[in-house]
Design a protein that fits this description.
With about 150 residues, this protein is mainly alpha-helical. Helix content is about 50%, strand content about 0%. The protein is elongated and about 50 Å long.
């Protein structure tokens, strides 16, 4: 993974409990800090996956991200499940492709958690272009992600 803060890596690695580190209403309700596990924005159960892929502009941002990933992997969008955002149990070859897909997923999760649920798809695209530019300034970009991020 690219070294861009460390906390983004924690969101995407499978060895940490994403459900425990993100303050969703479902989690807060489980530990009895709030009365309802439902999303305050739309009324659905507020899980990590809901926050990232469904609530507010999440559905359109997830669809946009899925299209980019399908372009990199050369597969149909139906083969990319929404749980890749929280538990990407995948192994791709070459390593640059694998790292690029994980980088894109990590950036999406990071953006959806940090930004307002009403942030537009264009704001997300601008965010990705800025973070890609920062990633491309690193010395080891070619060995990390190659040119796979050019599609952003």
């Amino acid at each position: 993974m690219l070294d861009d803060g460390g906390s983004q890596d924690k969101l995407i690695r499978g060895d940490t409990g994403q459900q425990d580190i993100l303050p969703t209403n479902e989690r807060l309700h489980t530990i009895r800090l709030i009365d309802s596990p439902l999303c305050g924005h739309c009324g659905d159960p507020d899980t990590v996956q809901h926050t990232v892929t469904a609530c507010g502009e999440g559905a359109s941002i997830w669809l946009w991200t899925k299209r980019r990933i399908t372009w990199i992997l050369r597969i149909e969008p139906a083969h990319i499940p929404p749980d890749w955002t929280t538990r990407p149990q995948i192994r791709l070859w070459p390593n640059q492709r694998h790292r690029a897909v994980l980088w894109i997923l990590a950036q999406m999760v990071w953006y959806r958690i940090k930004e307002s649920r009403a942030s537009a798809e264009q704001d997300y695209c601008d965010f990705l272009r800025r973070t890609r530019w920062n990633a491309y300034q690193t010395k080891h970009r070619r060995t990390n992600v190659g040119n796979y991020l050019e599609i952003l």
